[in-house]
Request: fold
Amino acid sequence: MKVEILDLKQRYQEEKVGLLKCIKRVLQKGNLILTPEVERFEKAVSKFTGSKYCLGVNSGTDALMLSLWGAGVKRGDEVITSPISFIATSNSISHICATPVFVDIDDDLNINPDLIEKAITRRTKAIMPVHWTGRVCNMDKILRIAKKYNLLVVEDAAQAMGAYFKNKHAGTFGKISGFSAHPFKNLNAVGDAGFVITNEKRLYDKIKMYRNHGLKGRDNVEMVGINSRLDSLNAEILSFRLKRLNNIIARKKKNINYYKKYLKSGSIKIIPERKSEKSSHSMFVTLCEDRDKLQKYLEKFKIQTRVYYKTPLHLYKATKYLKYKKGDLPKAEEFSKKFLSLPYHQHLSRSQIRFVCKKINDFYG
Ligand SMILES: Cc1ncc(COP(=O)(O)O)c(C=O)c1O
Reply:
């Protein structure tokens, strides 16, 4: 039995009729850029998340970069964030010439709010919490600190579409936030895509112009902008898929519950969900002893796994200029050696997960 980590081919089969209708609808009209399909998707996201405004952009990375820029983070400002993320988090800060400042994680794999205050300096301008794996950070504590020190909160909600903290949707806690619709996300485009949400009209207007070369209408260029538009085809596909998002999250959650049921070993840890949160289960990350050996062992049985990621952000060659060294963020470093993502996508059957669990249980004896 082969157990794959990704579901995209099966997802296409399940959604084929709807997807092909989307493609036909958009292509027939013959206009692919900034059409009403994009606005319709943006309105649907606003409704889903409870935010006033949404803007579709090219990627989650652009969504974060534009959020930081729009909120007023400038060259030389420091932005506090988590070392456990995809490199896009710190790249989005570096791209606008601000400095990422990493604060170690807690047992939930998110930034430890109790360590944030120590990292605040005169140059700190913002906190960028990352809702890693789709579980929202402890936003009560983070907002309290932000208020005390007058800091902006810009959420990296790339993985958190459909995630809630105390019944409030991810990305609605701070000033503005960025989401990814990369093909591996729960709400996924057929290529790169992302979006920004905010409650501030001023930010919405600013980023709307910036994502389209600084154009206001067809003839006025009011600022130097970039091209970071969400295309109409992806917008239409995302609107279709948004209606199915809760179903996909529920099926993924069900599969994680099978793991909880069938995994025996104390050597593999599934991070528990808190009562205050509803995760989007954008990733399923476990903590394993002998991770590399387990991964090789599972490979023998055609069970695919992934490591997100082996290196915390402060120890990459690209972030060397920030002058962190090994040992600076001990929990992030220790956990990075244990991360293992197991197959849990919505198309897997209970018997496939049982098979994976059996092999893991065998491995640990
Ligand atoms: C936490 C996090 N931040 C940012 C990004 C960047 O999103 P994108 O790949 O759409 O640019 C990702 C995507 O993987 C992510 O997981």
Residues 59-61, 64, 85-86, 88-89, 130, 156, 158-159, 180, 182, 192, 194 surround pyridoxal-5'-phosphate (CB under 6 Å). DSSP finds twelve helices and 15 strands in the chain. The chain has two domains: 8-242, 245-364. The chain has a mean pLDDT of 97.
